[in-house]
Specification:
Elements lengths: L17 H5 L3 H7 L36 H14 L3 E5 L2 H12 L5 E5 L4 H14 L2 E5 L3 H6 L5 E7 L11 H10 L3 E5 L4 H4 L9 E5 L13 E5 L1 H14 L5 H12 L1 H21 L3 E5 L9 H7 L6 E6 L5 H7 L4 E2 L9 E3 L11 H6 L6 E5 L5 H17 L7 H5 L2
Parallel strand pairs: 2-3, 2-4, 4-5, 5-6, 10-11
Antiparallel strand pairs: 1-7, 6-7, 8-9, 9-12, 11-12
Helix pairs in contact: 3-10, 4-9, 13-15
Bound molecules: pyridoxal-5'-phosphate.
Pyridoxal-5'-phosphate (PLP) binds next to helix 4.
């Protein structure tokens, strides 16, 4: 029972099932991990309390202590899916990222990160770390550069794979081994891959972070984050998390718990659809280049094939010279132009005008993110209908018959 636990690392949540579940498949874990053995129903209860009786002096349940029943259920689900000893759940991906980094880094320490990084993480480092006295180096998106940029005071290497928006791949095992030799902690943002496609901790990575706002939620209706790691690092992150207060409420936890039960089937369908769309786009005259790690000519294909069970639901492409990406977005009828990703509905964005808009032009160009680049988050719809929508939108873009209805969305950003 929760109430008699003294420390609440997740495998104590349901003592009867934890070890068995560590040997189960991701599909089965998605459905069954985190079952609270106090619950007499098939699903767990929602316990919204922020005030709890205390039954012994060592157990104080409180939302900002990250130990309330619904928080621990989701933490258990994610720990099992990621193959972690423990995990903490947060109110957003950025809460998980900022608290984790600030628990690992002190003034005088150094962190190495890849250039191709989620915009919020990039901004956190560039805008906040100087004032905190934390040094940082950004490198190209591969394990060799990340390892080569370390210094005697490097404490953390931070990676995202596949990376946004060009889906570059970092070799997780090589990164983990190289970093371990130098006693540097490795942190990987696994938002794009999800634990259905990739489990970095099983490749030796120390900490996995998530923006659960994306695939874990899967329904574009909530904000959530997580950090999955060893029990030792978990305690270090928890110490800071309690102070930073990025905890998530019970109702959101319940929605995430519910979403995770369908994570495996959703992501599998998204990966299948993305693979078909990537191949179809590659054949189109009006498409110049397709970025998808499941395509054999993608530079990260070999590593992706070795460390991912599927290649993910995200892909990017550039239209042929002269075709406007904004016209293309406006011409789509089924696929929705939207900033976020990972939902059951397919969404599309032009990173240069949205997620990477704040980046200086030169840096953006160096990264290969120009205005013709379109990023697609593939949903679970019928793939023929998705392809038909893309084809009709390209045709109308080429013929110049695109209505101007959605342009203000981007003007407003
Ligand atoms: C969205 C996102 C984040 C930030 O998550 P929030 O839930 O918006 O705070 C971090 N990393 C990646 C890869 C993301 O896509």
């Amino acid at each position: 029972m929760f109430t008699s636990a003294t420390a609440f690392h997740c495998s104590k949540l349901s003592t009867g099932i934890d070890m068995k579940h560590h040997q189960r498949s991701q599909e089965t874990l998605s459905v069954h991990a985190g079952k609270d053995d106090r619950s007499i129903g098939v699903v767990n209860a929602i316990e919204p309390s922020s005030a709890f009786h205390y039954f012994d002096e060592q157990t104080q349940l409180y939302p900002r202590y990250f130990n309330t029943p619904n928080q621990r259920i989701v933490a258990e689900q994610l720990a099992q899916l990621e193959g972690a000893e423990a995990s903490l759940v947060f109110a957003s991906g950025m809460a998980a990222i900022s608290t984790t980094l600030l628990s690992l880094l002190a003034p005088g320490d150094h962190i190495v990160l890849q250039e191709a990084l989620y915009g919020g993480t990039d901004a956190l480092v560039r805008r906040e770390f100087d004032a905190l006295g934390i040094e940082y180096t950004f490198t190209d998106c591969n394990e060799r550069e990340l390892l080569a940029a370390t210094k005697p005071n490097t404490k953390v290497i931070y990676a995202e794979t596949p990376a946004n928006p060009l889906l570059e791949i970092v070799d997780l095992q090589a990164l983990a081994e190289g970093a371990r030799r130098k006693q540097i902690i490795t942190v990987v943002d696994n938002t794009f891959a999800t634990p259905i496609c990739q489990t970095p901790i099983r490749s030796g990575i120390d900490i996995v972070l998530h923006s659960g706002t994306k695939y874990l939620s899967g329904h574009s209706d909530l904000s959530f984050g997580a950090a999955c790691t060893s029990e030792l690092l978990y305690k270090r992150i928890l110490d800071k998390a309690v102070l930073h207060g990025g905890n998530v409420n019970a109702l959101t936890c319940y929605l995430i718990e519910r979403s995770i039960k369908t994570l495996a089937v959703r992501v599998q369908r998204q990966c299948e659809n993305a693979t078909q769309i990537a191949h179809a786009l590659s054949e189109m005259d009006s498409v110049e280049k397709v970025y998808y790690p499941g395509l054999k000519r993608h530079p990260g294909y070999e590593i992706a094939a070795s460390q991912m069970s599927q290649f993910g639901g995200m892909l990017s492409f550039t239209l042929a010279e002269g075709l406007s990406s904004q016209d293309f977005l406006q011409a789509l009828e089924l696929i929705t132009p939207a900033m976020s990703l990972g939902g059951v509905e397919s969404t599309v964005t032009v990173p240069a005008l949205t997620s990477h808009k704040a980046m200086p032009d030169e840096q953006r160009r160096e990264l290969g993110i120009h205005e013709g680049l379109v990023r697609l988050s593939v949903g679970i719809e019928n793939v023929s209908e998705l392809l038909a929508d893309i084809t009709q939108a390209i045709d109308r873009t080429r013929s110049g018959s695109v209505p101007k209805r959605r342009v203000q969305v981007f003007d407003a950003l």
